[in-house]
Amino acid sequence: MAGAVVVGAGPGIGQAVARRFARAGMPVALIARSQASLSGVAEAVRSAGTAPDDGADAGGSAGDSTEVASFPADVTDEDGLRAALDAAADRFGVPDVAVYNAAVVRPDRIGGLSARGHLDAWAVNVVGAHTTAARVLPAMAERGTGTFLITSGMPHPKPDYVSLSLGKSGVRTLVSLLDQEYGPTGVHVAAVTVDGPVAPGTEFDPDDIAEQYWRLHRQPRHAWEHDVLFGGQRNG
Questions:
Q1: Which of 18, 53, 112, 192 is the 20 to 30 Å CA partner of 67?
Q2: What dihedral angle (degrees, nearest 10) is formed by the CA atoms of 89, 92, 94, 99?
Q3: Residue 7 · residue 31 · CB < 8 Å
Q4: pLDDT digits (tens, 9 = 90+) for 143-165
């Protein structure tokens, strides 16, 4: 059956991306730390899965009720995250697309965060993405197809967001390394770099951002992009 798995499936981009894939009829597995957050997102995704969509994917037919499953896990808990990814694969099969959307977004300046604080942020912003990729990409590579997308940001380092700037730089390096390793096997690896505060009804509406994930997933191999900058767009 396959489908999509979204790690960091909270309200905002995570939910919007899950809804976008559900609208195409794809089963969706949601992974996040909070069970309460997962319940709300799952309901929103199920509602999206019943809406007609012109871009139905092979995972299902648009307008059908979409299968959604939730798996609570902390991305900094390596064993727990692996177990959640395995449970999602057991439920739906090797995903057609996996999205890593977890991040620690907070202001901090040089010297303003302890070493422990930087390590904790790095664990979410970069190491969790690496853990996810290492668990799902080998099976995608064996199959010969798949998409792995990471939510990025901070295209230019900002002194008010030191740990996030470092983390997003690490994410872009990780994307490059994963593409070198798995791109030749047919796995499309890319980052969506969001250059602004995300909020519904603004230039950085999560539904508009989610369209970039869908577009990247649907790209033919000869046209693969690996870092898409979303700089905002006005609605209406």
A1: 192
A2: -80
A3: yes
A4: 999 999 999 999 999 999 999 99
